[in-house]
Specification:
The protein has 2 domains: about 140 residues, Rossmann fold (3-Layer(aba) Sandwich); about 180 residues, Dihydrodipicolinate Reductase, domain 2 (2-Layer Sandwich), CATH 3.30.360.10. The longest helix is centred in the middle third of the chain and has 17 residues. It has a 6-stranded parallel beta sheet with strand order 5-2-1-6-7-8, with helices on both faces. It has 8 helices and 14 strands. The protein is globular, with a radius of gyration of 20 Å. The protein is about 30% helix and about 25% strand.
């Protein structure tokens, strides 16, 4: 791969630091690395590939230097302002916020699913929602063969999806201190059916994200989708119960074989020996784990799946770095 100049925006945040870790682990071929954050983080040091980098303040002139790719994870407002500035200066932005995901001319990409969409970018590429990423990695090969008619998502999402405040709420709650900085109720010893804000239709924004993003990534707006997203008292890794109705008939052994042969997926489906995906096993990995595969006998061509992945890695940082890897093939 050609060496490029790369920037991290939001370098001191949870995902930003994981960007650096993943770049190092995958030996991403960069020549120069620039790290940006807000003014309160200026002067902090971060490390990648054994070298320390000093965090600079993100400014409108930050992209005046030679930068090929910028990985953004600094929130939607920052992305809305600075991603177009970067793109106007020839930088390709891979944005981890929700700011650009549903824009018509912005590709929404999971490299195992729709890598060809990258080529249609106009300077900005969106990284999908963490819960959507792991779902579509598993669903895409099934959609290709059996054509998905309907999906029911039920998610069990870790507090790291809420950033450092979510982690602090759980840490303090486990000590008996319900500080509730991230959530309206205690998260320790609780499950909250409330991720992001409630909309007028009764769904949360997170639930609508999963619905809209799945259709866009799979390129099929005829799929009927509903979702219930739940915050659970785990620090890392999202788990999902996914019910799928296909247009075509299938055999369970065929489903298992498809997962065995699909990139980015680990099949863990041996219930007799208590083998199924666990959040504790998915932590700090970049794969999507699939198990509890069984027919839904209540409908024709129905299937149940249990899908688990690390939401900060595959659900955010690793997926963005994988997009960058695809980009440099053509630079």
């Amino acid at each position: 791969m050609k060496k490029v100049n790369i920037a991290i925006v939001g370098a001191t945040g949870m995902v930003g630091r994981t960007f650096l870790k993943v770049l190092e682990e995958r030996d991403f071929p960069y020549e120069n690395l620039y790290v940006f954050a807000s003014s309160k983080s200026v002067g902090q040091k971060v490390k990648c590939k054994g070298i320390e980098y000093i965090v600079e303040e993100l400014r409108e002139d930050s992209f005046d230097r030679s930068i090929d790719i910028a990985l953004f994870s600094a929130g939607g407002n920052i992305s809305k302002k600075f991603a177009p500035i970067a793109a106007s200066k020839g930088v390709i932005v891979v944005d981890n916020s929700s700011a650009w995901r549903m824009e018509k001319d912005v590709p929404l990409v999971v490299p195992e699913v729709n890598p060809s969409d990258i080529k249609s970018h106009r300077g900005i590429i969106a990284n999908p929602n963490c819960s959507t990423i792991q779902a579509v990695v598993a669903l895409k090969p099934l959609h290709d063969k059996y054509k998905i008619k309907r999906i029911i998502y039920s998610t069990y999402q870790a507090v790291s999806g809420s950033g450092l405040k979510g982690i602090k709420d759980l840490e303090q709650g486990l000590k008996g201190n319900n500080i509730m900085e991230a959530y309206p109720h205690p998260i320790a010893d609780n499950c909250l059916p409330h991720i992001d804000v409630f909309l007028e239709n009764g769904y949360t924004k997170e639930e609508i994200k999963m619905i809209n993003e799945t259709q866009k990534i799979l390129g099929d707006y005829d799929i009927k989708i509903t979702a219930t997203t739940v915050r659970v008292p785990l620090f890392d890794c999202h788990s999902e119960s996914v019910n799928v109705e296909f247009q075509k008939a299938f055999e369970i052994d065929e489903i298992r074989n498809i997962f065995r042969d699909s990139p980015g997926i680990v099949l863990q489906d041996d219930p007799e020996n208590n083998v199924y995906p666990l959040a504790s096993n998915a932590r700090a990995t970049d794969l999507v784990y699939v198990g509890r595969i069984r027919r839904d006998f209540s409908i024709d061509n129905g299937l149940n799946l249990w899908i688990v992945a690390d939401n900060i890695r595959k659900g955010a940082a690793t997926n963005a770095v994988q997009i960058a890897e695809e980009l440099i093939k053509d630079l």
